[in-house]
Write a structure and sequence with these properties.
Helices cover 46% and strands 20% of the residues. The chain is of the alpha+beta class and 287 residues long. The chain folds into two domains: 95 residues, Winged helix-like DNA-binding domain superfamily/Winged helix DNA-binding domain (Arc Repressor Mutant, subunit A), CATH 1.10.10.10; 170 residues, GAF domain (Beta-Lactamase), CATH 3.30.450. A hairpin with a 6-residue loop joins strand 3 and strand 4.
Length: 287
C-alpha cells in the first residue's frame, strides 16, 4: 500500500504535510476485500437458512432456495462440517446445524448476561472514583492478550475511551496483570514467551515482571504505570467466578497527572470493592 497525494495543497509544516496525504488501498486490495465480503455474505446466508422454518436441507434444496450453484453450496457446507457448525445425517444425507453453533450461541448469551451483571458495579465505581471503568477478560486460547468487554464512561473532559472488543498485551496493562497474578496457568504461559516492550515503561524482564505480579497478589490490585500507554496509569483488580477461577478483571485508567500516589491509595480499595461485587454476582462466595 502506498500514499497518494490528494489535491495540491501547499504544506509548510510537518503536520500540514501529513494532512496532504491519505492512505488509499489499491484496486487489487479493494477487489480482494469485495470478494471476501461476498464470501462471508454467502456463508451467512447459508447458515441463516437453517434457523427458519426448515431445519434440515439437502444441497439441491439449498441451491434452489438460495439461488446458488450446487458446487458453491457444497463447498461451504463441507467447510462448515470441518468446523463443526453443520452436521450431516449419514442415512438421509440431509444437513442440519451442529453443536458448535449452539455453543457459540450460548457463549453469546452468557457474555451479555455477564456484562449486564457487572455494569451496576462499574457505574458505582465511576461515581466513586470519577474515572472511566472497564471490564476486561483473558481467554484460555490466548492468555497473552486482554480484551476489553465492557465500559462505563466518566464525565471527565479528558478520559480514556477503550473500544469494546479492543485488545492489549496482557503483560503491559493493569487489567492484564491483575488477571495474570491470580491465574497461575495464564502467568506461566505468558512467561513462556518473550515480554515485548509496548512503551519504554513496559516490564520485559521476567524477574521484574514476576516481582510485579507478586506485589499485585499481596495488595490485591495491580498498577500499570505507563506500560501500555506512556502517559496513563491504571488500577485493576481480579474478578473471581463461582469456582474461584480468575479470567476477568475490573479497573480504571486515567492520565498520569490525575492519578497521583494519593489518588491511587484512595481509589484502589474502591476498584477492589467493585471486583468483589462482580465476583459475588457471579456466585463467588469468598469475596
Amino acid at each position: 500500500m502506498r500514499a497518494r497525494r490528494i489535491g495540491a495543497v501547499a504544506a509548510t509544516t510537518r503536520r500540514e504535510r501529513l494532512q496532504c496525504f491519505v492512505w488509499l488501498p489499491s484496486r487489487i486490495h479493494l477487489g480482494e476485500k469485495s470478494r471476501v465480503l461476498t464470501s462471508v455474505k454467502k456463508a451467512a446466508t447459508i447458515i441463516e437458512a437453517f434457523v427458519g422454518g426448515q431445519r434440515e436441507w439437502t444441497i439441491l434444496e439449498l441451491s434452489r432456495k438460495l439461488g446458488m450453484p450446487q458446487p458453491t453450496v457444497h463447498h461451504f457446507l463441507a467447510s462448515f462440517r470441518e468446523l463443526g457448525w453443520i452436521t450431516q445425517d449419514s442415512a438421509t444425507k440431509r444437513y442440519r446445524l451442529g453443536i458448535k453453533l449452539w455453543e457459540i450461541g450460548c457463549a453469546s448469551v452468557n457474555f451479555r448476561e455477564l456484562a449486564e451483571s457487572a455494569r451496576p458495579h462499574l457505574r458505582k465505581l465511576v461515581e466513586a472514583c470519577g474515572e472511566t471503568a472497564h471490564l476486561g477478560m483473558i481467554s484460555n486460547e490466548d492468555p497473552t492478550t486482554v480484551v476489553y468487554v465492557d465500559r462505563v464512561d466518566s464525565s471527565q473532559p479528558v478520559r480514556i475511551v477503550t473500544m469494546l472488543g479492543s485488545r492489549a498485551p496482557s503483560h503491559s496493562s493493569a487489567m492484564g496483570k491483575a488477571i495474570l497474578a491470580h491465574n497461575a496457568d495464564f502467568e506461566a504461559r505468558v512467561l513462556a514467551g518473550p515480554l515485548e516492550a509496548v512503551t519504554p515503561h513496559t516490564l520485559i524482564e521476567p524477574k521484574a515482571f514476576r516481582r510485579d505480579l507478586q506485589q499485585t497478589r499481596a495488595r490485591g490490585y495491580s498498577i500499570g504505570r505507563g506500560e501500555f500507554a506512556g502517559d496513563m496509569i491504571g488500577i485493576a483488580a481480579p474478578v473471581y467466578d463461582r469456582v474461584g477461577a480468575v479470567a476477568l478483571g475490573v479497573g480504571i485508567w486515567a492520565p498520569a497527572a490525575r492519578m497521583t500516589r494519593e489518588v491511587i491509595e484512595r481509589d484502589a480499595p474502591k476498584v477492589v470493592e467493585a471486583a468483589h461485587g462482580i465476583s459475588r454476582t457471579l456466585g463467588f462466595l469468598g469475596a
